[in-house]
Amino acid sequence: MSRRPVHSAPLARSAMAYVLAGGRGSRLMELTDRRAKPAVFFGAKSRIIDFALSNAVNSGIRRIGVATQYKAHSLIRHMQRGWNFLRPGANETFDILPASQRVSETEWYAGTADAVYQNLDIIESYAPRYMIILAGDHVYKMDYEVMLQRHCESGAEVTVACIEVPRQEASAFGVMHVDEADRVVSFLEKPADPPSIPGRPDVALASMGIYVFETSLLTEELKRDAATPGSSRDFGKDIIPAIVARGGAVAHRFEDSCVRSSGEADAYWRDVGTVDAYWRANIDLTDVVPALDLYDRDWPIWTYGEVTPPAKFVMDDDNRRGMAVDSLVSGGCIVSGTRVRRSLLFSNVHVRSYGQIEEAVLLPGVLVGRHVRLRKVVVDSGVVLPEGLVVGEDPDEDARRFRRSPEGVSLITQPMIDALKA
């Protein structure tokens, strides 16, 4: 686990976390047809946004705002059910801030910076000294208190959380070019030739979309940006580059505040923004010692605790055995006479007999019929898979019927299943 510098009082008490959760996440294809990317299910129990929110609560931050926009109903419902434990009477707040044309009667949130600007009056009513701006669509564990303290120590106008990535992969990110003191010299959005870290030619620093400001300075910057013609009203495109240009930005290494249990060897951060990345990050959790420890009781991932009966496994004949190996199986699941291997079954998944499930991510409420064989799939919530369906054995047939990713993962939704019957 990260080691905190010693200060007289946690700075998190004076901070507000503001989570940007309005993005669609179009690269997740049909998984975000009905929900925003932060609301996508992850890890057999949680939603993606639970990681940013849990990091804030575990870091000691008790004032949280979440800006929503794209198809926000399931996200808002999840937060109302699972994140209603903060108590205003104890100076704790949790505000859900949908785009509601509060500043203009003709505009929704025009960008990430505008999503904060339109709610400045709400932020100012709480009078936080610090603002930590968070992306709501990444999977990681991080102690924001460490980043807040480093921000104060550096005297920077903005501190940008960064993760080290191989230089050849950095073209997919916003890249921070830093000097030997981690002062940001330039910010480059998805550069063809990413700059390396001083002294480490094969490594670059990619922005994590996490920023710390003093609230007074952030307010000034947002008002200036709102008055600037032609601005895209975006942190990464407008706010951060303007501060970098005058030498006021410092990079904060994720390694310094990443939270790790004894079983986690490396700093874990994932952008699960494609079907392949989403499938892989989920399936990796089935490893005997996974790279991400969801069982760390010192840094729990809070979420909505749905009331379900226990998972159940039935039938024990040679060709009809209900069992799961190297898998995560949630409450309410019934595995009847089928073998499940290296898979994740979210709540209330029912699997009927004589099938085989392997490397599958089955979202809540999926019903798997008899004699179904699945391999390397993601099945959206509530889908009913008909008897005898086979996926993962014939690539051409899979691509004809379903959404097949570049790495061979089949994404299955109910409209795709209904089309098979037409």
From TrEMBL:
Domain named Glucose-1-phosphate adenylyltransferase/Bifunctional protein GlmU-like C-terminal hexapeptide: residues: 309-412
Statement: the UniProt record of this protein carries the keyword ATP-binding: yes
Q: Which keywords does the record carry?
A: ATP-binding, Carbohydrate metabolism, Glycogen biosynthesis, Glycogen metabolism, Nucleotide-binding, Nucleotidyltransferase, Transferase
Q: One Pfam family for this entry, by name? A: Hexapep_GlmU
Reaction(s) catalysed by this chain, per the record, are: alpha-D-glucose 1-phosphate + ATP + H(+) = ADP-alpha-D-glucose + diphosphate
Q: What class of enzyme is it?
A: transferase
Bilayer-crossing residues are none
Q: What is this protein called?
A: Glucose-1-phosphate adenylyltransferase
| Gene (UniProt) | glgC
